[in-house]
Specification:
binds NADPH dihydro-nicotinamide-adenine-dinucleotide phosphate, two-stranded antiparallel sheet, alpha/beta, about 280 residues, binds 2-hydroxyethylsulfonic acid, seven-stranded parallel sheet, Rossmann fold
Length: about 280
């Protein structure tokens, strides 16, 4: 029997950015597991092969009730984002949920030694990419008339921020600034959309073990592994469960803002490690 959450998600179309790995990939799987009978998932990222594998994994696990569409999309490319909705097959265009998850960090350099290229890619992906995706999909939400509330519009924008957006730390100035920008944009947007049924949701994870640190250290897996030494980070599934929980609430409930730590963490820079 479907859970209340599963029923609420039934028939929806969900777009996830950054679904080739980590939190985005787990979020796609969690949506499929929660509402396996009738769901459409548009999974996007730059690595198409990983998305195709994800589609196979989902259909193997939950069957064909979940229609998965892998779409190669670089959110840092404004033209690709502009063409995204128009290029979707008709049956995937009536989007209900946008999970703005694609994001990355590059390096631990401090000013004045931060590489311009790293700065640009972080802003273009984490900030401009997220805003462009939101602007591309929001008109679909605003055109929707739903329910007896008298308010127009419906849909969920779920932005993956970070503890880094709340608490800047040395060696993360650009990444932290991008996530603070996400936080600020999200809060403005929620206020701008107050007369609609669109829900604007921010989910801020603490430390999660994904490819995030491997990307931060330019592919150096040893350096990445050190980040998690002596502690038990969150898994991407832990965050995926919260994303799906937020999307699966009754339409009048907005899980506006959530900070999720592993047990050993109490701030961006306060962590207990076993020695
Ligand atoms: P991963 O590196 O495992 O996943 C990042 C995803 O983003 C990948 O699927 C990657 O896909 C995608 N991505 C990166 N650049 C682009 C781009 N230009 N266009 C489209 N997709 C892109 O890391 P996480 O799962 O940890 O990261 C997901 C989100 O969670 C990020 O926004 C991150 O900032 C945030 N976060 C992570 C935390 C952590 O500790 N791991 C903590 C707090 C927040 P591809 O390379 O195929 O394009
Ligand atoms: C990722 C968390 O603290 O490594 O957003 O920047 S942190």
């Amino acid at each position: 029997m479907a859970t209340a959450m599963g029923k609420r998600l039934e028939g929806k179309t969900v777009v996830i950015t950054g679904a080739s790995s980590g939190i985005g990939k787990s979020t796609a799987l969690e949506f499929a597991r929660t509402s396996p009978k009738n769901l459409k998932l548009v999974v996007t990222a730059r690595r198409l092969e990983a998305l195709q594998q994800l589609k196979e994994d989902i259909n193997k696990e939950v069957g064909e009730g979940v229609k998965v569409l892998p779409v190669q999309l670089d959110v840092s490319n404004p033209e690709e984002v502009k063409n995204f909705v128009g290029n979707l097959p008709e049956e995937f265009r009536d989007i209900n949920v946008l999970v703005n998850n694609a994001g990355l960090v590059k390096g631990v350099a401090k000013a004045p030694s931060i590489a311009e290229q790293d700065m640009n890619i972080m802003f273009a992906t984490n900030v401009t990419g997220l805003i462009n995706m939101t602007q591309a999909i929001l008109p679909i939400f605003l055109n929707r008339t739903e329910g007896s509330s008298g308010l127009s519009g419906a849909g969920d924008i779920i932005n993956v921020g970070s503890i880094a957006g709340r608490e800047p730390y040395p060696g993360g100035s650009i990444y932290c600034a991008t996530k603070a920008a996400v936080r600020s944009f999200t809060e403005s947007l929620r206020k701008e959309l107050i007369a609609t049924r669109v829900r604007v949701i921010e989910i801020d994870p603490g430390q999660v073990e994904t490819e995030f640190s491997v990307v931060r250290f330019y592919g150096d897996k040893k350096a990445a592994d050190k980040v998690y030494e002596g502690c038990e980070p969150l898994t991407p599934e832990d965050i995926a469960e919260v994303v799906v929980f937020a999307a699966g609430r009754r339409e009048n409930v907005v899980v506006a803002d959530t900070l999720i730590y592993p047990n050993h963490q109490a701030a961006a820079t306060v962590m207990h490690r076993k020695t």
